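In the laboratory, one determines a bound structure by crystallizing the protein with its ligand and collecting diffraction data. In a computational setting the workflow is compressed into a single prediction: the sequence and the ligand go in, and a structural description comes out. We illustrate the idea with calcium ion.
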Amino acid sequence: MSKRILLVEDEPGLVLTLTDRLTSEGYQVESARDGEIGLERASNEAFDGIILDVMLPRKNGFDVCRDLRQRNVTTPILMLTARGQIVDKVVGLKLGADDYLTKPFEMMELLARVEALLRRAATPAANPAISANETYQFDSIKINFRRAEVERDGGSIELSAKEFQLLRYFIEHREATLTRDELLNEVWGYDAMPTTRTVDVHVAWLRQKLEPNPRHPIYILTIHGMGYKFVG
Ligand code: CA
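The predicted complex, in structure-token form:
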């Protein structure tokens, strides 16, 4: 069955080109020409992936991304950002996008990114640490993987999609020392992010949300010269 992609983009020429090319690659492509329509369609219909432009009429791509994650829509998102807007990448990551591509881009690069995005989403890792009903608990923190929810003492903790994937990888590899390169490869999937700094930023965000004292972590430990180890 062909994968269904939602393309949220207002530039008619780009919509046409991308739709043609993705369709010829075997994808089923639907498009939305502004952020409001994109948000509604992505919330109410099943898509395998979303290509989301940042600069959109009515509602920008960041707001669409944030609202989707708040609605617990976990569809993988590839954001299209303008050239050189590094700040955009950081903001987008924090809001739960999975990957970025800077405009203008090569069509081959976009196709490779889309393929990787959908492949990652389709292959959940084997996870012996996670019980059959898809939950994991440490101390007062309880994680429901199926529902993508995290609770502490019954109160909910908001995680971005990427923070959630990173936490899941840590739990699946509990007590193992994981290098930044491994985390980058396994959680981000391939060399999309040029720097392992991305990993450090996400670990810091996870610590802020999960650790009793983020300055002195007891769950996600730094192993100097090596990487990180989850011991929750
Ligand atoms: Ca645009």
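Residues 9-11, 53, 55-56 surround calcium ion (CB under 6 Å). Keep in mind that any predicted model is a hypothesis to be tested, not a measurement.
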